[in-house]
Design a protein that fits this description.
mainly alpha; two-stranded parallel sheet; 1% strand
């Protein structure tokens, strides 16, 4: 399609891929269901199983929730949301093994993170691996060693991307609040592409010290941020274990007026989401 419409072939790749995304987004309201309760393709037994699984994962809104402005606004103030020397073709082929191995590690981290519910721990395992890779890339002037370092960097960074998104999802309750928080998290991550496209300068080929240095800085900030978030979440869980966040429930003893008054535990769950005293954050 080179020259069609006065545009080069590479431009048409972006146009066609973009059109597919636009069309998919336009039809998604009729394809994607909001809640299991609205999924006509599920049997009653399947719907019950799905809802119970979601509720066991601390998603109290699994049975349905109307979008409320207060939940959307809460998302914007939610602190948890803000925690080559080779030619082109051979070089591109060399990236294939890197992506394959990184994909495998991403899947492994995802499965283990779900099983043990320790998102922060896996960040603290993966990010130092990535840091090691970028340190080697900064120091190395050997192509083979640098290629090995790329594996380390990719296997350290890629699993953390999905792990962080899942961490946010685990710790934000309420479908409307969660959707906004996830959108903000993913958008923030995608915007970093603007940074990466400008820090790897052609004049610094093939070692790119500025790019690797800034990437190492980001990884270091990720380690620090993970430690801080883990500490805050662990402290908050401890406060809830001690009853400091208990609400006043009609007909029950205990609770603190500052935490709110509710007619039932279910009302407290739905009204407070992840701020409910019975909710425990994933560490």
């Amino acid at each position: 399609m080179d020259g069609v419409g006065g545009k080069p072939a590479w431009a048409w790749i972006f146009i066609l891929e973009g059109l597919i995304t636009v069309v998919a987004g336009a039809v998604s309201p009729w394809i994607i269901v909001d809640f299991p309760e609205n999924a006509s393709f599920l049997t009653e037994a399947e719907r019950t199983v799905v809802i119970r699984r979601l509720q066991c994962d601390n998603q109290f809104s699994a049975v349905g929730e109307r979008i409320k402005c207060k939940h959307v606004k809460k998302s914007f103030t939610e602190w948890k949301t803000y925690a080559g020397r080779y030619k082109a073709t051979p070089a591109n082929l060399l990236t294939v093994p890197v992506y394959i191995v990184a994909c495998i590690f991403t899947c492994i981290v995802g499965v283990l993170g779900d099983r043990y519910r320790r998102r922060g721990l896996f960040n603290l395992i993966c990010l130092p691996v990535a840091a090691t890779g970028f340190i080697i890339l900064l120091a190395s002037r050997d192509a083979k060693l640098s290629y090995f370092a790329v594996f380390l960097a990719a296997c350290g960074v890629f699993p953390c991307i999905s792990n962080i998104v899942a961490w946010v999802a685990n710790n934000v309750e309420g479908s409307s609040k969660r959707s906004v928080s996830l959108a903000m998290t993913i958008t923030s991550g995608n915007l970093q592409g603007i940074v990466s496209s400008n820090i790897y300068r052609a004049k610094q080929t093939p070692w790119y010290p500025t790019g690797h240095g800034i990437a190492l800085m980001y990884v270091t900030l990720g380690i620090i941020g993970t430690l801080i978030l883990h500490y805050i979440l662990k402290r908050e869980n401890a406060r809830r274990d001690r009853g400091e966040r208990d609400e006043i429930i009609q007909g029950q003893e205990g609770g603190h007026i500052a935490n709110g008054c509710f007619e039932s535990v279910e009302e407290a769950k739905r009204g407070k989401g992840d701020e409910w005293s019975g909710f425990r954050y994933t560490l």
